[in-house]
Amino acid sequence: MSELHPSMDVDERAPAIEVRDLHKSFGDNEVLTGIDFHVDHGQVVCVIGPSGSGKSTLLRCVNRLEEPTSGQILVEGIDITDPDTELDLVRTRIGMVFQQFNLFPHMTVLRNLTIAQQRAKGRKRGEAEQIARENLAKVGLGDKEAAYPAHLSGGQQQRVAIARALSMNPDMMLFDEPTSALDPELVGDVLDVMRKLANEGMTMMVVTHEMGFAREVGDNLVFMDGGVIVEEGDPVEVLTNPQHKRTQSFLSKVL
Amino acid sequence: MTRSARTRLMTLSLYAVFLALVVIFVLLADWDAIRRNFFLTEGFTGNWQDMIFVGAKNTILYTIISFIGGFVLAVVLVLMKLAPIAPFRWVATGYIELFRGLPALVVILFMGFGVPIAFGWRPPGGTVGAGLVALMLVAGAYMAETLRAGIEAVPKGQTEAARSLGMNARWTMASIVMPQALRIVVPPLTNELVILLKDTSLLFVIGLAANQKELTTLARDFMSSGPSAGTATSLAFAALLYLAITLPLTRLVAWMESKQKRSR
To answer: How many Å apart are CA A204 and CA A191, to the nearest integer?
Structure first.
């Protein structure tokens, strides 16, 4: 895998994601003020916190949709903040799911799942379609491959988005508030798919407001506020017995 | 009087005023003079072949050529404008501002007379060629702005989704952003097609050979020659032909826009 970076191979022992002293500013507004944390292989880490706490920005820095101001982000040991890193190749190994789904509206569901396989991974159409169909079946939408996104419910669209990310065979998945734009009755289906993924051992970093999911599925819970990690640890522990005042006051509002 | 009765009376009187104005116009107008000056039958029966198969044909041909040329130019300009290299952006911006700021007529005169004299170079195709190049240059600037607006109307999340899947910037533009942007700009581009069609009449100023004449030039000829000489019949004829092309197009735009609004 040395094509990812001229001087570095994927290090199997390195954490899936490692963030070192990450700072991010938008103009004068410092959104992240020194973040250190990591996600191990096969781990599910949930990130919670009030809006504006920087949790989405942190997630978006991990595949460099946001350019970090300073600090280091290592994905499987590869420094993605290094300008010599083949970012597009690294990104094929990191699946991302957005709050607003961001399906391609001018393409069928199947095409949504195959386009990047062909364009970014160089897979042949037949192979890409086969992989796409497997992943559609996995999220319970095997019968929707010919539909356009506009004809699907929000929950279905989000499951297609998950299937699209999975079709790249990523090593890890990033979820940016995947259920926040959904009607309450549709949240369950999406969380079921995510639970299934976690049980299969997928490495996941999930920014979420779903405390139930964090408690039940998460291996680690990170509470962020004001651009720093205030508290992290075992989800049940953090949720039932928060140590920090800010964590306590946040949880008292959302639980 | 009740409120609804008052409203009804008001509506009724507005209708009455309108009707009165129409009646006055019909009674006062000199219908014979109008017919003789604008709708002389011989002007239609005698000139229709030239008007349609030379004039209208050339007008449509020139519109299509300059639209296609302008569109290609616009794509290049908009890619330059979105390029990460600053000088490319400056050139594109400068070009767009220059050609949107100049009257099309001035650009046509420049290409037709100024450039050949100053640089000793003639655009291919003689005078018509020069005129068409001028129309392309102007249309390209307008269409570039339209395209840019269309590209910017594609939500940022589309680019982010494509990039997060590992697609590079070029593929993202080609298979995700551009197809959606083009769909957005079809109505405004059709509007520009209509404007371009009308602007071909400006080629009138650069002197066209007999078989190159577009509608306006030809109509102008037929004001002083042929069966309706001395009247404006040929102009009215040209006007009707322009409308026969532009009205369906503008209706089409209105229909597409209402359809887009509904699907949103």
So the answer is: 13
**Domains along chain B with CATH numbers:** 41-263 (1.10.3720.10)
Largest CA distance in chain A: 55
* Residue A1: predicted pLDDT: 42
User: What parts of chain B have a pLDDT lower than 70?
Assistant: 262-264
CB-based contact, B165 to chain A, within 8 Å: yes
C-alpha atoms less than 13 angstroms from C-alpha of A194 in its C-beta half-sphere: 34
Location of structure tokens 């993202």: B172
Contact list, B158 vs chain A (CB under 8 Å) = 102, 104
Nearest-CA distance B174 → chain A (Å): 11
Contact assessment for residue B110 and residue B134, using Cβ atoms and an 8 Å cutoff: yes
- DSSP state, residue B82: T
Distance CA B139, CA B128 (A): 16
Q: Are strands A203-207 and A44-48 parallel, antiparallel or unpaired?
A: parallel
Tokens representing B21? Answer: 């104005």
Q: What is the pLDDT of residues A48-90, one digit of tens each?
A: 999 889 999 999 999 999 999 999 999 999 999 998 899 999 9
Count CB-CB contacts under 10 A for residue A73.
Answer: 21
A103 interfaces chain B, CB cutoff of 8 Å: yes
Instruction: Give the integer Cα–Cα distance in Å for A121 and A35.
Output: 32
Residue among B161, B163, B180 whose CB faces A106 most closely: B180
DSSP string, B210-224: GGG--HHHHHHHHTT
- Interchain CB distance below 8 Å, A106 and B183: yes
Question: Tokens standing for B170?
Answer: 């070029």
Interface test with B, best of A88, A92, A94, A169 (most B CBs within 10 A): A88
The tally of CA atoms less than 13 A away on the side-chain side of residue B262 is: 6
Interface of A with B in 57-76 (CB under 8 A): 63, 65
* pLDDT for the residue numbered B143: 96
Helices (H), chain B: 3-28, 31-38, 41-50, 57-81, 86-101, 104-109, 115-119, 126-153, 156-164, 169-171, 178-199, 215-222, 233-263
Contact B171 A105 (CB under 8 A): no
Given 3-state DSSP classes, what are the helix, strand and coil percentages for chain A, each rounded to the nearest 5? 40, 25, 35
Please name the residues in contact with B119: beta carbons below 8 A apart, sequence gap of 6 or more. none
Q: What is the pLDDT of residues B163-218, one digit of tens each?
A: 999 999 999 999 999 999 998 999 999 999 999 999 999 999 988 888 899 999 99
Using CA atoms, how far residue B258 sits from A48, A82, B195, in Å, is 43, 48, 21
- Report yes or no: A151 at the B interface, CB cutoff 8 Å: no
CB pairs under 8 A between A and B: 65
The neighbouring-strand residues paired with A33 are A23
